[in-house]
Design brief:
The chain is α+β, with helices and mostly antiparallel strands. It has 7 helices and 7 strands; from the N terminus they run H-H-H-E-E-E-E-H-H-E-E-H-E-H. The chain has a 7-stranded antiparallel beta sheet.
């Protein structure tokens, strides 16, 4: 039989409507932040004509959920294009209790097209602040050591052998007041790859 009794801490939370109202207010602010970012992303991507047309044509998408390892999340995808031939996306991700991150995913034809740009970026000083996915599952978002490693720790040969490229940078939630500018700067850095 399931234990349906509440602990003292659980009872305190269930009696506190302000907790949920505050959580909802925070998620609304994340949506506002991502709305601002999507406007910036569109403006910058539209001026960046070296991005493939099909990638720039699809509107940004903001979505949310409640269970990324049990915690709420919000995601902004732009630019984004997914097909059998390849995937191209830049994803901005808010994860309650963890961080905000920005991630570039390239696979298939897009990985081939931009392989040399990724190699050049790997050689730059800026790459030391980025992480590269080393895991076969490209749809996770945590930054644990079994999933991401510092980009600078990979060799050029390692990068060529990757089944996809997933570059990411994270900002701790403690830096909330600086997240918007950090995401804009990181997005601009990623655009320089194309």
């Amino acid at each position: 039989m399931a234990n349906v009794k509440l602990s003292a801490a659980e009872l305190k939370l269930v009696l506190d409507a302000n907790f949920i109202l505050t959580k909802n207010n925070i998620i609304a602010k994340v949506y506002d932040l991502f709305g601002n970012l999507s406007t910036f992303y569109i403006e910058n991507a539209s001026n960046h004509t070296s991005l493939p047309e099909e990638v720039r044509q699809i509107s940004p998408k903001i979505s949310k959920g409640e269970n990324q390892e049990g915690l709420p999340w919000v995601v902004l995808d732009y630019p984004r294009f997914f097909s059998k031939e390849g995937e191209f996306s830049i994803r901005t991700f808010f994860w309650w209790g963890n961080f905000v991150s920005i991630t570039l995913l390239l696979s298939g034809s897009y990985q081939q097209i931009y392989q040399s740009s990724i190699q050049q970026f790997h050689q730059s000083a800026e790459s030391e602040h980025w992480f590269l996915c080393r895991h076969p599952n490209k749809w996770l978002h945590h930054f644990r050591e079994d999933y991401y490693q510092p980009f600078s720790t990979f060799t050029s040969a390692d990068i060529l052998q990757m089944p996809f490229i997933k570059l990411a940078k994270k900002v701790p939630l403690q830096q909330w007041d600086h997240i918007e500018i950090k995401m804009k700067n990181s997005f601009s850095t990623l655009l320089q790859l194309f």
